[in-house]
Design brief:
Structural class: alpha+beta
Number of strands: 5
Helix content: 40-55%
CATH superfamily: Winged helix-like DNA-binding domain superfamily/Winged helix DNA-binding domain
Order of helices and strands: EEHEHHEE
Strand order of the largest sheet: 3-5-4
Largest sheet: 3 strands, antiparallel
Low-confidence stretches: none
CATH topology: Arc Repressor Mutant, subunit A
Distance between the termini: 25 Å
């Protein structure tokens, strides 16, 4: 993936997570919903895996755009938000 002209390594699950959230911009998803939709129903890991992937994405994308962000929705989970 290229961000601001620089090549940034993004593992497939991080990319799939970003892609899924972006396709559903504005809609909040719980960790379990994201695990089901991105990792699949047969994933046996912990739901905190989502937190780790979101953290890594935020670090890589921190200066990518001022038009969107991955937002934490307290008590729910995460959403891709388009900024005004």
């Amino acid at each position: 993936m290229k961000i601001n002209g620089k090549s940034v390594p993004v593992p497939s699950k991080e990319f799939e997570l970003l892609y899924f959230l972006a396709l559903n911009a504005g809609k909040a998803f719980t960790r379990d919903q994201l695990l089901d939709r991105v990792w699949g129903f047969d994933y046996l890991g912990n739901s905190r895996t989502v937190d780790v992937h979101i953290k890594r994405l935020r670090e890589k994308l921190k200066d990518a755009s001022d038009k969107w962000c991955i937002k934490t929705v307290f008590g729910v989970g995460y959403k891709f938000e388009l900024l005004s």
